[in-house]
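agent> Task received from the user: take the single chain below, predict its 3D structure, and emit C-alpha cells. No templates, no multimer pairing.
agent> Plan: (1) validate residues, (2) run structure prediction, (3) serialize to C-alpha cells, (4) report one or two observations.
agent> Step 1 OK, no nonstandard residues flagged.
tool_call: predict_structure(input=
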Amino acid sequence: MRNRKWSGKGSLRKIAAALLGTALTAAALLTPATAAETEVSTEESTVTITDHADRTVTVPTDPERVVVLDILPLPSVLTVFLGSADTILAMEPASMNAAKNGILSELYPEVLNVSTDIMNGEDVSMEALLALDPQIVFYNAGNKALCEQLENAGLCAVGVSPTKWQYDCIVTYDEWISLLSQIYPDVAVSDEVSSFSTQMYDLVQERTASLADEDRRKVLFLFQYDENTMITSGSSFFGQWWCDAVGAVNAANEVSADNSNAAITMEQVYEWDPDAIVITNFTQTQPEDLYNNNIGDDDWSTVSAVKNKQVFKMPLGTYRTYTPGVDTPMTLEWLAGTLYPDLFPEFDLAADVRAYYADLYGVELTDEQIEAMYHPASAAGSWK
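)
tool_result: status=success, residues=384
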C-alpha cells in the first residue's frame, strides 16, 4: 500500500483535506493496544501477536507463503495491502470468483495464479494445504474446529474476525489492517484510509441526523435470493450497520437470526413494504429480476421499492462491498448518495472513486473499470 497524500481536488479530497489533521490525531490516539503489546524478535524474524480469536501466536514477519481460508474478503485486502498477490498460495473458490468478476484480477493479474485446490466441498483438504508448506494460514476466528484442525497439523494459524466488532465495516477493516501491519512491519501503511473512512462516515451521519423519522428510507437487504431461498440482513449482520451508517431504517430489523441464517418470506416483504431494496453480490440476482418477477413464483409488483424502481445492486470493487474491505468508504458514498441524493449534491461517484484509488493505492482506474464496479455482473454472485 502506498503512502500518498490527498491532492485537494474533488469533493471528497476537499473534505479530507479540511479534516485530515483532526483525523490523524484521533487515529494516533486510537492505535489498537495489540500493536503496542507486540514483541518482535529481529534475530528470528518473528512477531508475537494476539489474533482475533484472542490467541497468542508467534508468526514469521513478512511471510512469503500464506494461505487464506474461510475469511473470504481477506485475499483482496491482503493483495491491496501488499500491492501484490504473489505471496498468496491458496484461497477459497468464493474469494477467487469475486477476484475474477471484479477489478482485483485486472489490477493484480497474478491473483489468478492462486490455487483454490485446498477445498474439498465445504471441508479443507489438509493434504493439499500441507503440500503448500505455508508459513501462515489465515482463517475465520470464529471457526474453532478449523483452528484446532490447523494446530493439530502443525500449521501456524492466525484468526481474523468479520464479526467481533458488531459488523461495523470501518472498525473491522481497521482491525484487519492493524493485524496485518504487525505481521508485515516493513510495509509502509498510511493512516489515510482509516481516517478518510471515518470522515466519510461522520459526514453522512451529520447530513442525515436531521431527517425526520418519516423521511428515513426503509431498506431491505437481499443477501441471497433465488427460487429456493430468500435471506436478508436482520439486526445481526452487515446490512444493519449499512442502514445505520447512512441514516436509513433496516426493514428486517426485527429478524434476530445471525448473518446468513436470516431467511424470510414474501409475506414478510409485503408486510414491511420497503422503500428501497439493496441486493448484495453474494447472489446472482439483479434488480431486473425483481422488476420482471423472474425468480420462482414470487410477485414483487406490489412492493413500493419495485413500483418506484428503487432496487439497487451493490458495487463490486476489489471484493463484494457488503463486507468490510478496501472499498468501504466509497460504498458509503454510493449508498448515501443513492438513498438520499438531495442531501449529497456534491458527490461525483465516478470522479471520487477514481481519485480514491489513485491517491491511496497508486492505481489508475479506467472508465470501463469504474462502470463495471457499479454495474457488476451476475456471475460475481456465485460462491464457487
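agent> Step 4: summary for the user.
The CA atoms of residues 246 and 335 lie 7 Å apart.
agent> Done.
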